[in-house]
Automatic annotation (TrEMBL):
Catalysed reactions, as listed in the record: L-cysteinyl-[protein] + hexadecanoyl-CoA = S-hexadecanoyl-L-cysteinyl-[protein] + CoA
Source organism (scientific name): Catagonus wagneri
Domain statement: The DHHC domain is required for palmitoyltransferase activity.
All copies of domain Palmitoyltransferase DHHC, residue ranges: 104-224
Protein name, entry field: Palmitoyltransferase
Cellular compartment(s): Membrane
Keywords tagged on the record: Acyltransferase, Membrane, Transferase, Transmembrane, Transmembrane helix
């Protein structure tokens, strides 16, 4: 049993997990590394850049912006990791042959609606499964896709802010002739580390965010075939597809990792 979920007796929908956590060694290592990298960026930025410049307004503005984005990124990561992605109730493995109520998963016995797939790490079938991401130690599915999208968005924005914060002064100094390839002055190792981590984080998060936006707007997942069958269940427009993930009406809750989206069925009706 690699995943753990708990419910409360007072919950009328007792089959819906209130707490979700995947016990996977690789996922725990990757998720911990993600938090350590983001927090180490914050420490290095403060000690090697914001404090030495000795301009309170500059440090306050850029520090506040980065730490806000980093906080939102980690909050989104935590919501993605600890939210049930849409696990279907498991049952006895189905016997060969047709069964009532739809196809059964031969591994966990769950009745699979369209778009559901079995995850070998979570050992459950997940509604609207896009992929299993070790960096969030969870599947990305119908019920936590918004949080994963926000995680990639805020990670990309925080990394881009660092790249501009470090890169613009270097380019300005190079343009003014204050630094060139023959200079004996070398940048501090901490700032090189910060720049490289930010560059890697930006490339990874920006690509993932772009992929997620494309698949959401086209109502696909990462493991579905490129072309949907005509007449298959789906939404009528990219705008409706986006609202099904973020919420039925545009609001600040769309960009908040603390606001849970409405159930997909409700979003389809509104």
């Amino acid at each position: 049993m690699l995943s753990w979920a708990g419910t409360t007796e007072m919950d009328p929908a007792a089959h819906a997990p209130r707490v979700w956590f995947v016990l996977d060694a690789l996922g725990l290592v990757c998720a911990t590394a993600t938090w350590l990298l983001v927090m180490s960026e914050g420490v290095v930025l403060l000690c090697a850049w914001l404090l030495p410049v000795r301009h309170p307004a500059y440090s306050l503005v850029h520090g506040s912006l980065f730490y806000l984005l980093a906080f939102l990124a980690l909050a989104s990561h935590a919501r993605t990791m600890l939210t049930d992605p849409g696990a279907l109730p498991a049952g006895a493995p189905a016997r060969p042959g047709p069964t009532p109520g739809g196809p059964h998963c031969p591994l966990c016995g769950a009745i699979q609606p369209p778009g559901a797939h079995h995850c070998s790490v979570c050992e459950r079938c997940i509604r609207g499964m896009d992929h299993h991401c070790p960096w969030v130690n969870n599947c990305v599915g119908e019920d936590n896709r918004k949080f994963f999208l926000l995680f990639t968005l805020y990670t990309a924005l925080a990394a881009l802010h660092l790249l501009l914060l470090l890169g613009v002064p270097a380019l300005r100094a190079y343009a003014l002739g204050e630094w060139n390839l023959r200079t004996t002055v070398q940048p501090r190792g901490s700032l090189v580390f910060l720049f490289l981590v930010a560059l890697k984080g930006f490339l990874f998060a920006a690509v993932m965010f772009t992929v997620q936006i494309h698949t959401i707007l086209t109502d696909r997942t990462g493991i579905e075939p490129p072309q949907r069958q005509r007449g298959a269940p789906g939404l009528v427009s990219p705008w409706m597809n986006l609202k099904a993930v973020l919420g039925h009406r545009p609001s600040p809750a769309w960009i908040s990792p603390f606001a849970s989206p409405e159930p997909r069925a409700m979003s389809l009706q509104l």
